[in-house]
């Protein structure tokens, strides 16, 4: 089996591009090789700031071959009366690259046609790989592309060399004005190259030993972590590792060298959040903590070179960080002298979203909405949540957040403690923007969760009222993230809330706004939007789509209660008699659905029950109904579904022995009411008509 390596050498690529490019390259090569019928073992991808690499092992030497039958024109036009080929027959043979004597007549249901058996495939792997490379590279996805040799070629960064080798031979193809060869280049300073690669198996070794490049991002992370832990231990601390930052730093370097720097102890007076933001966001460096958990006056960074003068390099890092910390200290001192009242006055001059008023208006809405949500979730917090809502955006006009916008919310909580607000208010302000995404942590407190819900619901109600719904390509106000955050808070904290009622309350909080959509229309679109988000969220957890459709059909305004129905129905769907149960209850649901024009009360007259089967059905249903209601009140959906086993035999016997749509109108209506009563009872947990079995 053969080994293929492709390396695209580029000017330094932004770190955020690399993970997506690794995945896209792997997926596209796997797809193209699969379509081409070229067998392979594994497609692996790696990247550094200066190269994108595809490594394919277990490659077959040639494309898979197979015999196919190619149909041609009908015999009536391909052969003349004497059986000799006409122009149409000869043209078919010529188009297939064969002599006419290789063509035969094939009888089909539609008549006789010319046909040809031919073997396809068998092309050399090198030819297929060259075509794959030429097809994949121009179509790679980048957030932004560059032009450097004219408009005919664009890429994330200028391409400077291409290596493409199948075992010990080049696989030549052209891209970006370059022809792929057998040479690579290493670290820009420590091993610039070029270096000849004798065999694809030797590529990684040549890059490591001669080019001084660590190709695998995981290895670069491990090197940074090991050196960082060692350096931190030397000063009696541990590194405040951030996995997301470590991923980013590993994609900024090719030959990482951990380096420890320091700063003046006076800066430790600043909040830890400010220090870490200055280090992590602006310097791509890590903080250190001592045994007591407090930050030490050190930081860890990763250089991309083995310097001959490390003290000089360290001094440069320290000088830049010191400037950032001096700024932060100035902002901190200025903010400490300001008051919340001063900031609240400024909020009345800061626009929230054009037609929706100012940030001051928003905080007044949140004052009411947060208190209202708290009255449902934790009534003792209502007064504190009103205060938190009013102060929620005050830190946006502080000096610190103006400069370090990543600290919004967090600084509000810190300043609240500093200026004498209660701990509940401070924690709510600190947590108000959480969760910030699907994998982001939730607010650490109930107060934070309440304020976060109020903020997100206010955003959604305002934007949907203006018709500013997300599209497939754009979501400028992060409304999907807002809706997902609401769902996650409710689900993970087990809150019993009516989301439609809260959205209606959020809409009512706006005054004097010229809406583009009427509140009821906007609310319908909002609920549909939440339904889409919930389906996507639960689908990602492995819940089948039909289970979701059935469980959400009774309504999903109470998201946590809906989740309990979903999980119960998902468990029920895995039982051996599930399909039989669905067929029975789906039949009842379908019959009632077809009677849409007839008003059914669900009231059953016992004097009209003629058949033993319908009497037994009615008796079974009356026995189940009170227990079903009790279980529904307790939210015991597994228990409710378990009762279906006792009910199903009576329903099956009813369908076997009773004609529902009989000629007698009174009997027919009574039997339909019996089924209506069943469907209404079942509808408290699911719509079985949604299933397809």
Verbal overview:
The structure is a single chain. It contains 25 helices and 18 strands. Strand 2 (42-48) and strand 3 (51-59) form a beta hairpin. Helix 11 packs antiparallel against helix 12 and helix 12 packs across helix 16 (446-465). The chain is of the alpha+beta class and 693 residues long.
Helix content: 40-55%
N-to-C CA distance: 46 Å
Oligomer: single chain
The helix tally amounts to 25
The biggest beta sheet reads: 5 strands, antiparallel
As a percent range, the share of strand residues is: 5-15%
Regions with little confidence, pLDDT below 50 for 5+ residues: none
The total strand number stands at 18
Morphology call: flat
Mean pLDDT: 92
Question: Rg, please?
Answer: 35 Å
Name the structural class: alpha+beta
Question: Could you give the order of strands across the largest sheet?
Answer: 2-3-1-9-10
Please describe the topology of this protein.
Blueprint: E1 2-10, H1 18-36, E2 42-48, E3 51-59, E4 66-74, H2 75-78, H3 87-95, E5 104-108, E6 111-120, H4 125-136, E7 146-147, E8 154-155, E9 159-166, E10 169-170, E11 174-175, E12 178-179, E13 183-184, E14 195-196, H5 203-209, H6 217-234, E15 238-239, H7 243-250, E16 257-262, H8 272-283, E17 286-289, E18 295-303, H9 310-337, H10 340-347, H11 359-377, H12 382-391, H13 399-403, H14 410-418, H15 423-431, H16 446-465, H17 479-493, H18 499-508, H19 519-539, H20 545-552, H21 559-573, H22 578-593, H23 612-634, H24 637-657, H25 665-682
Antiparallel strand pairs: 1-3, 1-9, 2-3, 4-6, 5-6, 7-8, 9-10, 11-12, 13-14, 15-17, 16-18, 17-18
